[in-house]
Amino acid sequence: MSIIERVLVDVPEEYLLFLQNAFSYFEKYLVTDFLPKLVDCIAFMMEQHQLSTPCDKALLLDFTAELFVLRKEFANALKKRLKAIQIIENADTEDVRTITLLSNLYNNLSNTYLYLKKMKEAAEALKKAFELLKKHEHLRLMESHDTMQQIGNLANMLIVGKEYPQARELLTLYESLISEYENEECLDYGFCQTMFGILCYREGKATEAERHLLSAETIISDVMGTDNDYMKTVYRYLHSLYIRWKKPALAQKYKGKYLESSKNKLKISP
Hints:
Blueprint: H1 3-6, H2 12-28, H3 35-48, H4 54-70, H5 74-91, H6 96-115, H7 119-135, H8 147-160, H9 164-181, H10 187-203, H11 206-224, H12 229-244, H13 248-260
Helix pairs in contact: 2-3, 3-4, 4-5, 4-6, 5-6, 6-7, 7-9, 8-9, 8-10, 9-10, 10-11, 10-12, 11-12, 12-13
C-alpha cells in the first residue's frame, strides 16, 4: 500500500492538487501501472469532499482519457478530451492555471487526433494551443509551456513508426508556429531543428540532416550551453551521421564533443 492511500487528509483541496501533480509525475516516468488506481483516488476525493471546480473536472476527464490512450481506445479518449475542453471554455476564466490547462488540453487533444491518424485535426488543435499562449502572453505562459515535449513525443513516435511524411508535416507546422509566436533563436526552434535532423537522418538524407543538426547545435549552444541532453542528442546524431557518411575526422570531432558533455542519459538515440 502506498503513502497516497494511507495519508491522513487535513486539507482536501491541497491533497487533490498533490494527486493531480502525482499523475503527471508518474506519467512522465512511465509508471503507468499505478495510474488507474490514482485516477480512482482522485475521483473519490472529488466526490467525497465535493471538489468540482472546472479545472478539477477537466483534469479528471483528461486523466481518464490518458487511461483510454494506454489501452489504445483512442475514440473514447477523444470524447473525454473534447468534453474537458468544453468544460474549461464554458468556465470563461483567464487565470494562469485555467489558461495553462486549456492549452495543455489542446496539446493532448492533438496527440489523440494523431493516434487516430487525423493529421488536419491534430494540426488545428496544436495551433489552438499556441494561440492561447500567445493571446495570454502577459501571463508569461509561453516560457513554461509543454508544447516542446509534446511535439518531440509525437514526432519521435511517427519517426520510429517510419511515418516520415506525417512527421515532416507535424514538424513543418511546429516550425511555422515558433517563427510566428516566438523567434528562431529560442530553444523551441533549436529542438525543432534537432527533430528535423533526426527525421532526415532516418530518411537517409545526409546533407539535409547535417544542415538541420548544425543549426540545432548553434541555437542550443547559444541558449543553454553544451551541458544538457538536447546538445548530447545533437552530438550523438552528428557523430553517427559522419560515420555513415564516411567523414572520420568530423565523426571523431563530435565523438569528443559528446564525451565532454554531461553524462545524463539520452532521451533520444539513433
